[in-house]
Amino acid sequence: MPAVIESVGSARPRGLETRERMGIDVADGPTLGISWDDYDDGVLWWTMGAYVMPQTINTTLGMARDWRLLRTPRASSIFRVRDSALAGARSRPTSQWRRWPLTEGYAPEQVNTYAYRTPEVMLASAQAWKPATLGAQTHTWQATLGDSAIVFTTYPGDLLENEFAGHWTGGWHPRIAQNRTAAIILNDQPRYESGIVQVISDALFPDYTHAFFPRGEFDEVREQGQWVMARKGDGYVALYSNNPATWVAGDEWIDEELRADGRSNVWICEVGDETQYGSFDAFVQQVTAALVVVAGDLTVRYDSPGQGLMDFSWTGPLLVNGTEVPIGPYPRYDSPYAAKEYDGADPYVIRRGGLSLTLDPASLTRSEG
Fold it and tell me: Which of 40, 181, 275, 369 is the most exposed place for a label (fewest CB within 10 A)?
């Protein structure tokens, strides 16, 4: 292993910020030399989960038919689900497909991720990524204070449990904005053009959002008002739910799941540590005293103890103390250890101290310094 990789991996920075942009959008395929109609490229789209995007759905169904996939029990069940979801929709203009939440979320596509880390805690999220689309095996944000001391929220996709999404994976994507120690997570139900589809979706999918918050993995847990706060060692985490949240009792997730009724909700996560606050008591006091204002259209104002006044909404930018903070698009890598433009010809260079590693895709060379 290159020495610089070991060096970066063992680093314990305080206040590290990492921004990344990864993946491609299906709409950009032809400009990248990837066809929507060719079966060989169709296999590539499948590896990216782009089975039923507007540009690829006809190719997917053609591949399934010509390769006799519909005769296999597993594939047949998958394509029946997709085909029923797409009934009457294949002829839609591309512009309308952007409003078809049942199909748009499966392809991960391009995502901008942001992470903040100290030796005691890390908070990371996918910034404003495909909100109100149904995702499979996706995980959009998490606060980490230890191997099992983690906190995150989802709008579950239980209808598709064990198939594409489940109680804790996938589901309806939120719209998230994070700046350093604070993240605002907006959940809303998808909106369909068809009233019948809306009624069916509302009937089939859960009408709550929830948080994974395993109380037994933390050294201390406190609840005050709409906040639940925990300490693990010298790391702190606080979670706010605009809708009243209660601990689930009597099932496998007892003492681990907080559930808030309603398809629209606002969650807020704030993290900190002893170096920043001095004590857990001080963290609790400042978080619970913070201003939180939520309007019916999911416009949020939160006076973060760590970041100051944050404003965010379902369609607007993230403002911190009145100044817009970019939540994408980011470079390919942007951190103290690596910087790389997303679509530039510049090489990948990783540095820490006097160590370095350069990867040059143009010449297919690797050099250490």
Answer: 40
